[in-house]
Amino acid sequence: MLKRDIHIESIYTELPFEERLAAAKQDGFDFVEMWGWEDKDLPQLKKLLDENELKLAAMSGDGPYSMCDPADKEKYLNYIQRSITAAKEVGCPVLVIHSDALEEWPQFAKPMAAEYSYETRICAMLDVLKTIAPWAKEAGITFVLEALNVEKDHCGNFLTTTKTAVDLVAAVGSPNVKVLYDAYHMYLNEGKICETTEKYLPYIGHLHIADAPGRHEPGTGVINFPYFVEHLEKIGYEGSVGFEFYPKTDTSAAVKAVNACFDNVRGEVKAARR
């Protein structure tokens, strides 16, 4: 069965952060997700997770440094080590990483220290990924590398395609380094989200959903998410499906839209049990 988690920093924004976990649990979620950990009280977060019988499915693992910038390597790796410590403290099994650090919204990629070639950036990323893979194995966590769109949200970001992300992960060859497939970003960049997820299924460790082009809840754009979720179930995807979007109306309507994505899957499960 697919595991679903809801993002408590892009959704439930009408509530103080410390009240969002209880609201997510009340809405039927067993898993939640968030962005960075540095601005959180981690002991308090762990306490709230335990009190609400919730698990943190994923959180950001990188911060103000770029993986594809050789000048950032030492600082990037130091930050990753701190992220691993934070993940272990709150029981988070997945850390999301990117090619570039992102500036404040509107999120432009942080400028590079020099004019690097494409090959130099790829080599820098591979070097970092090979370094952190054994750290992830020792800690019992998984890093997931996310490609982003550059037309609407993340101008200047280096990693923009599923294939390049997969090629990097395949070159590392570790079960603790996988791809985060974001259906919103990749629909805008590539289209064919069903074909792509099936083709690269062994490399996908986490998944994000938001409708396109508005980055709102399912049903507000052009992607048929009930069909896509059913497709993920059929091809045997076993990771979390993270709903990371900005509600177009309010949280209540957004949660209903999330639940509607699973109606077909639940129907098949009920039929199979009869």
Terminal CA distance: 17 Å
How would a textbook summarize the main sheet?
Answer: 8 strands, parallel, barrel
Taken in chain order, the helices and strands follow as: EHEHEHEHEHEHHEHEHH
Mean pLDDT: 94
Q: Roughly what percent helix?
A: 40-55%
Q: Identify low-pLDDT runs.
A: 267-274
CATH superfamily: Divalent-metal-dependent TIM barrel enzymes
Report the strand count. Answer: 8
CATH first level:
Alpha Beta
Which topology does CATH recognise? TIM Barrel
Spatial extent as radius of gyration: 18 Å
Main β-sheet, spatial strand arrangement: 1-2-3-4-5-6-7-8
CATH architecture: Alpha-Beta Barrel
- What structural category do the secondary elements indicate? alpha/beta
Strand content: 5-15%
Number of domains: 1
Overall 3D form:
globular
Count of DSSP H/I helices: 10
Protein name: AP endonuclease
InterPro entries: HyI-like, Sugar_Epim/Isomerase, Xyl_isomerase-like_sf, Xyl_isomerase-like_TIM-brl
Keywords: Endonuclease, Hydrolase, Isomerase, Nuclease, Pyruvate
Domain Xylose isomerase-like TIM barrel: 21-248
Lay out the secondary structure.
Layout: E1 3-7, H1 17-26, E2 31-33, H2 42-51, E3 55-60, H3 73-90, E4 94-97, H4 118-139, E5 142-146, H5 162-172, E6 177-182, H6 183-189, H7 193-199, E7 204-209, H8 225-235, E8 240-243, H9 251-260, H10 263-273
Parallel strand pairs: 1-2, 1-8, 2-3, 3-4, 4-5, 5-6, 6-7, 7-8
Helix pairs in contact: 3-4, 4-5, 7-8
